[in-house]
Every structure is written in C-alpha cells, then in structure tokens.
Amino acid sequence: MTIINKIWSKQFVVQTSANKKTIFSAVLSAGLLAGLSGVSAETLTVWSGYPEMAPFYQHVAEGMKEKFPDLQVKVEAIALREHEKRVALGLSSGTSDTTVIELSGSTASRYIENELLPAAPDEVASFVKDPANFGSFFSQTASMDGTVYGVPLFRGQGSLFYNTEMFAAAGLDRAPKTMEEYSQFAEKLTKRDASGKPTVSGWSLRLTGGGQGIAEKFWINLFQFGGNVVKQTDDGKWVTDFANEAGRKALKQYLENVYTLKTVTPEMPADAEAFERGETAMFIRESWVISDIASKAPDLKYATAPLPRGSIGLPNNLYVAGEGDKANIGWEFAKAANTPENLVWMLKNVGWLPNRSGVDYSSVTNSQPAFAAFVDYPEGYEFFTLPSIGPVEEILTRFAAQLTNAFGNAKLVNDDAAIDAFLKTASEEIEKILDREDLLGK
Q1: What is the DSSP letter of 325?
Q2: Cα gap 182→263, rounded to integer Å
Q3: Mean pLDDT of the chain
Q4: Are the C-beta atoms of residues 303 and 175 closer than 8 Å to each other?
C-alpha cells in the first residue's frame, strides 16, 4: 500500500508530542523577525482549515512586509474536511511552494510517521519547549516522541453559551452547574407551539451533521459524566471508556431531551446560527462564537460559563512542508504568528484562543467578558484532547455513525439494557480498529 493510500484509508474512511535560550525568544518578544534578511521574491502558501482564520494570516503577512518586502503570501483557508483532503494529497505529491500547514497534532501525526512533515529547526524547538512560552499540554501536542514538529498557535475549547434574556424569562439567574441541571434548565427554556412541539430549543444538541463533529460533541458531554471515547492505558496504548455508567448517562440524556422532555429535535436549527437567531437558549461551543456573535448578532444578550467538569482542548499547530533553506520562510511565518501583538489581534478579531503563555490578553478580556469562561475556570478543571494516533478520525466517524442511529431510536430512551447493548457494540467496533493498528491496550 502506498503512503498516500495508507494516509487516505486512515483519514477518510471516516472522520478524528534547552538549554538553548537562543536569540529566537528575544526576537519574538521584541516582535521582530530574524534569519532571512537575504530572502527576496519568496512565495509562501498558508493552508488553513478554518476560513475565519484567513484575516489573521493576512494580518501576519502584512506585518512581515517591512522585513521581507518581496515576500508573496497566499492564504488558502477552506472548510476543514476539504482542507484535510487537500493536505493528504498535497503532502504525498509534493507542493510547488513553501507551505505553512495548519493542523491539529492528532491529524499531523500520520504525516510525521510517514516522514512527510519535517522536524522543526533547533531554535524553533527551543522556543516551543520553553515552559515560559507554552505549557506541556501544548508543547507535547506539537511534538512526537520528544521531537518538535510544529509551532502551537490556537485551540478550540468548549464552554456554555446561554441567552440571558431567555434565562431571565424562565426564572433562571445563572448557568447550569451540573449535567442534571442542563436537562432541568432545558425543559424550562424550551418554547412550544399549541401542540407542544418545540419551536425554540432549550438546549441545542449536536444530533446531525458532519460525522466527527457529532462524536466530538458527544465526547464533551460524556466527559462531564466521567467517561471518554478512548483513554490511554499504562502500556501507552488505548481502550474505550464509554460502555459504562458514564456512557449510559450521557446517551440517555440525549435521548431524554429528544423523546421525553422534548426540548430539541434533529430537525430544529442548531449550533451558533440558531443561537444568534434566538432559536435556541443554550449550547456548548468554542470561543470563535464570540466574534461570530459580534459580527452577526451584536445586540444579542448572552453570557458564557465553564462546563461542569472540564473541556475538550483541540490545539492547532503550524507545520512547514519542505526542508532546508526552502522551508526557512515558513518557519519565519510560524514565528511571526506567535508574536504577542499578533496573538492579541487573533483573540480580539477572530476569537480563537492563543496557546502561548506569558502574553497579556487583558485588553481583550476586559472589553469582552464572554472570554472569561475560557480563561477563568474553577480549580481542578480538566482538559482532554483527541489522541495523536493514526485512526482517531476513523474512530470518531464510525462512532458518530453509531450515535446518529441511536439518536433516531426512540425505543432506547427507557431501556437501559438496550442502551448498554448499543454502547457495548460501539465499543467493540472501536477496539477492533485499535487492535488492527496494534494500539489496543489492556
């Protein structure tokens, strides 16, 4: 099997790691660029899977013009799934220009394993490994087996968004603090027509749509009950962790909201668009929604709150295709993206959360309190992320297909034994994938 076929089969059957304090840190802190003063007429392409990031990358490029007046930067930001397909094809066939590629650590791992993405230069690795710049959670997700391959940039992190006017009208003066309260609040917040059919959902749950997204959103709720789709074992491998009480509670909550409490239906408008149009009272999403609301629904009265136990954290890193001198301009771009000025700009104008520590973001958080839930959480708040294993997208997409079937099965709602049987079957399917890849733990 060719490299591209191996990558394609893992990624698209379904959608899912110093002493040297070089002048690199000083240069970044000063907001300057170094190392390519002799470069001219260079072309750099930036590939992103988040269209809303295009203005940020263009802003970074504009800031580089003084140092590199002849640098041509092409920002190509497209939908995430199309971006992932483009990366799979592009890295296997080779790219004509130096290319900076935005990827999550879990997705990048398959290309690193197949030697399609090079390790970062020493000075870049020193910067990434410096705890003053990045916590271990972020430096590890940009590394594999202790070697740095990417530069951390931004993360997705879930919190609750809730409509404060709807809450007040329902007699609620705070966000729910437990998963049980989520259902209780949802019932009070749901608006219905004369027949009892919901017209405004009390809680927008991800019931349909892109496969991997369904599984990721379910994982967030599952995590609040103490479970995980997969968890690492002592031998460094993986097992499922949802064919249990936590999984039963999480799935049952979905089913009860659809069929018993009837606070939401699969056909109802969902997610950010529904929230911005006043068609749902609350939903769980990442911080980019803050900027989206500011541009699309500036008069919306809302607030945010941390989740009961903790949140998913999905760090995205910048990788560079190519090696040697040709790749230098790409690493310069990755460094420029991490200057404090640019990171503050990203938080303010795009809404994704920068991964770098030691930067003063108060100018943004003071003017936009909605960011508080993403930076101020209770002691003991936990984070999890998608594992950096080859079949992670396959696992999530297969699981999502199973979940979609379950969400449409009203017979499951009052039958714990049937729920347990479903979870056992889904768990066995995932563990077969792990076993196939020699990743199944004990």
Answers
A1: G
A2: 11
A3: 88
A4: yes
* 314 Cβ neighbours under 8 A, 6+ residues apart: 104, 155, 156, 157, 286, 385, 386
Q: What is the CA radius of gyration of the chain?
A: 22
Q: What is the DSSP pairing of strand 310-321 with strand 147-148?
A: unpaired
Structure tokens that stand for 128 in this block: 């990434």
Provide, rounded to the nearest whole percent, the portion of the chain with pLDDT above 90: 72
Residue 421 φ/ψ region, left for φ over 0, alpha for ψ in the -120 to 50 degree band, beta for the rest: alpha
* Sign of the CA dihedral running 8, 9, 11, 14: positive
Phi, psi of 240 (to 5 degrees): -80, 160
Determine the average pLDDT of the residues in 273-289. Answer: 95
Sign of CA dihedral 428, 429, 435, 441: negative
Residue 260 structure tokens: 């018993």
* Of 59-63, 280-284, 287-291, 432-436, minimum mean pLDDT range: 287-291
> Quick one: 295 exposed, middle or buried, by C-beta within 10 A (0-12, 13-18, 19+)?
exposed
pLDDT > 80? residue 185 = yes
pLDDT at 110: 85
* pLDDT recorded at residue 146: 93
pLDDT of amino acid 7: 41
Beta strands in 293-394 (DSSP E): 302-305, 310-321, 353-354, 382-384
Asked if the model's pLDDT at residue 90 lies above 70, the reply is yes
DSSP 256: I
341: left (phi over 0), alpha (psi -120 to 50) or beta: alpha
Measured distance CA(210)–CA(332) in Å, rounded: 34
The token pair that represents 355 in the structure block: 């991964």
Mean pLDDT of 57-61: 98
**What average pLDDT score do residues 266-283 get?**
96
Residue pLDDT, tens place only, 344-357: 999 988 888 999 98
Q: What domains, with CATH codes, occur in the chain? A: 42-155+315-368 (3.40.190.10), 159-312+383-437 (3.40.190.10)
Cα separation of 260 and 24, whole Å? 58
Instruction: Note the Cα 310 to chain centre separation in Å.
Output: 14
User: Average pLDDT for residues 280-294, to the nearest whole number?
Assistant: 92
> Could you give the CA distance from residue 392 to residue 19 in angstroms, rounded to a whole number?
34
Amino acid at 273: E
Report residue 192 as tokens.
């219905």
Closest CA to 114 of 1, 16, 3: 3
Burial label, 55 (beta-carbon count in 10 A; 0-12, 13-18, 19+):
middle
So what's the pLDDT on residue 386?
86
Match 């590939």 to its residue by tokens.
47
